[in-house]
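Good morning,

Attaching, inline, the backbone tokens for the sequence recovery test we're adding to the shared suite. The designed sequence is right after.
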């Protein structure tokens, strides 16, 4: 099974993809748009994309791509994000002078970096890519912050593990397929949708009231601008139901009062790993 991810091999997306499909062959893409292009052209079986981090928030580009692509969410997973300081074999924490990583990862490890003022943080395009760069460079004074998977992928040495500031650091990932190839899972108690309403008083409130009427757990609401139409928005909603058989009830009522409703997927809600 070929699964596309955005980012280098060894990234957290790589780790999440293997968690969801342990036997998968991972196809690395430089850009998220390329991931969706491969998926829709059937060059890969599925894609695994991050949609939300518990600390940094939503990956807004992926909401846009889900809306504009003929794909559907098959399932979700929660990955605990454990950051590690990684150097080349033979390096030491005391010898590291420059630490590369994605800006979000650097921001999530401020306390650790603050204990080592001699280390200069340097923003890099990708966490796993920073490990790839450091191991290629071969400089014992250079380190990177990334996953254990990245250290394994590029032969790096973990100098310090679990260096993130907040242990409650999780990223929610979707496994996405082209709409025609989705393999429904049993007991889908969670639904993701996108909808638009007329720009007049009360329309959004009326749409959201539907979820209350059907006793759903409205667990996420996100808005994104409609490109080319200033001050018009697409609203993204995740909701849960107690009875999996009732996942479509709110959706059907919503269709009758919105300009557009797109069903992005029905799937079992992921649970926090123990």
């Amino acid at each position: 099974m070929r699964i596309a991810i955005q980012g280098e091999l060894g990234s957290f997306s790589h780790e999440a993809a293997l968690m969801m499909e342990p036997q998968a062959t991972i196809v690395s893409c430089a850009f998220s748009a390329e991931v969706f292009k491969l998926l829709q052209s059937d060059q890969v079986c599925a894609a695994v994309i991050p949609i939300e981090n518990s600390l940094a928030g939503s990956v807004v580009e992926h909401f846009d791509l889900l809306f504009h692509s003929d794909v559907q969410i098959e399932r979700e997973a929660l990955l605990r994000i454990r950051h590690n300081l990684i150097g080349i074999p033979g390096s030491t924490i005391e010898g590291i002078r420059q630490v590369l990583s994605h800006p979000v990862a650097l921001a999530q490890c401020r306390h650790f970096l603050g204990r080592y003022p001699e280390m200069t943080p340097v923003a890099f395009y990708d966490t796993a890519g920073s490990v790839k760069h450091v191991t290629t460079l071969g400089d014992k004074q250079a380190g990177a912050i990334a996953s254990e998977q990245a250290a394994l992928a590029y032969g790096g040495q973990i100098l310090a593990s679990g260096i993130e500031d907040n242990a409650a650091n999780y990223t929610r990932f979707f496994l996405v397929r082209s709409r025609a190839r989705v393999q429904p899972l049993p007991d889908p108690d969670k639904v993701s949708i996108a909808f638009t309403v007329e720009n007049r008083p009360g329309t959004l409130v009326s749409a959201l009231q539907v979820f209350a009427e059907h006793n759903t757990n409205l667990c996420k609401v996100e808005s994104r601008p409609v490109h080319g139409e200033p001050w018009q928005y697409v609203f993204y909603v995740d909701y849960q139901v107690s009875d999996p058989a009732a996942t479509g009830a709110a959706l059907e009522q919503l269709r009758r009062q919105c300009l557009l409703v797109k069903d992005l997927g029905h799937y079992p809600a992921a649970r926090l790993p123990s």
